[in-house]
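Data availability excerpt. The first of two example chains:
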Amino acid sequence: MGFLELFVVAVKPVLKVLLVTGVGLFLALDQINLLGPEARNYLNKIVFYVLSPSLLVSNLAETITYKSLATLWFMPVNVLLTYMIGSALGWILIKITKTPKHLQGIVIGSCCAGNLGNLPLIVVPAVCEESNSPFADSPTCSTDAEVYASLSLAVGSLLTWSYAFSIVRAYAVSTGKNSSQSSGEVSEPSLESCKEALLPSSYGPYGEISEDTSVRVELPPMITSYERTKIPFWEKIVQCGKSITSKIDLKKIFAPSTIASIIGIIFGIVSPIRKLLVGDNAPLHVIDTSAALIGQAAIPCETLIMGSNLLKGIRRSEMNLLVIIGILAVRSVLLPLSGIGVTKAAYHFGMVGSSSLYQFVLMFQYAVPPAINIGTMTQLFQSGQGETSVILLCTYAVASISLTLWSTLFMSLVA
């Protein structure tokens, strides 16, 4: 497969994203005003709660099976490594560039979360369809490409809406708290402000009042040891577990897309459910096709929102040019190099098979631009939408060249 043919294959999906982004920008202009702030907010909620979950459920139920999960176990590990390495590089970037606090979550999220959904779904099968492709000799290339891309979509969505979502939300929420306190709202009392005596001097024979009016309570050693042995060990473990789980908000960790990914995988690997939903002769096939029909609108709507947010970023953006260059370096240079090292090491130790297409997809997962869902998150939190759109536009524009060059190198390494 020559460089020109590969360039055409790789540039088409990225060019589609840029064109739809331009449409979203046009619809957000003041003269048009079809995607104003209120319209974006409603559309974003529809994508978050309806379109993206429908896309994940239908796609995973149709392509993922128990056999594919058993043979492709390293791919989830590989995707997790892309997030871990990207997070580390993003953290180094915000320290070097001294990124403002409220933008650090966006920078780390853009570095760690890649577009592991629509780009692999478009690019990888398209590579198989080329007559001079290095993978065209296999009759099952297109089928394998769909499975690889679908599993990449599933694992990427799980990590994006759990890991990256938590990072973006943490910085957005902390910024909101700071702004609310500065506007005059009452903040929670600190420990330093609570200096009154907890017990008066008349309570208990063991309280001793010091000169600074604080109370020091001492208990005899016998009572202390008795109290320690009074509670069984297993009850202490239960209490510790409850104290930890009480601090975890499952509603914020399990976003709709995360739940949809889990449901889609269950539908795919559980044979009785799969026979009911998947296939032309399945009794409930209409449910699967309806979900697929709704899910087809997810990616275009996300891209339109990104383009409409770009108008705000063009007018007023706090994102430093040095930060954008750093994100480009992370996603277009450092991560792809890491992908080559990880995949070659995994192949050397027998963690991946001899399939050249599988190795190509593992490397490809490191070279994709940031996930468009990062823009969806900032729209949900109403923080950093313009800056995120500027980052996405720059990274996708560069990806039209970098993704082609890296794909050429990846094919030469696995062919």
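And the second chain:
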Amino acid sequence: MSYDWIIDLLFWVAVVFLVAVYVSWRATRLDRLHVRVETARAALDAALVRRAAVALELAASRLLDPATSLVLATAAHEARTADSEGREFAESDLSRALRAVVDQPGFAAALDGRADGAAVLDEVGAAASKVVYARNFYNDAVASARDARRKWLIRALPLAGRAPLPGFFEIDDDPPRL
């Protein structure tokens, strides 16, 4: 009596099992990449909110002339209240406003000897640097997720489900030269 059919059956069961394990691994990896994108987005949002708060603090610090304070406060408010479609533009405007404030002639000289001015400027510099890092981390996570979603298996078996394709966050985030 021949048991070749049992060997064939075991072979195909093993093949199906290995394919299922591989598909599950790819789906799990894609899920982890989407979680990474969401986490990086939350960190980016926190850094952007912090930068806007520090900009408002600088505007209210009486270290600037009233017109400059108003421009900076308006840009910070617009950045904090912008909807998802206008967020990138509002954040870019805030970056440009911060650079314009710091690049004013005589700005550094006006802060000499003022401890509160140095502290606020340190906070502005730290918040602006964190935005640059957070945006880079977020865009790297988005690139990884988009690369994974381009794979044949992910598209053939809709392993991404209904998750939207993550988009890059592009702003003018050059920090002010302090």
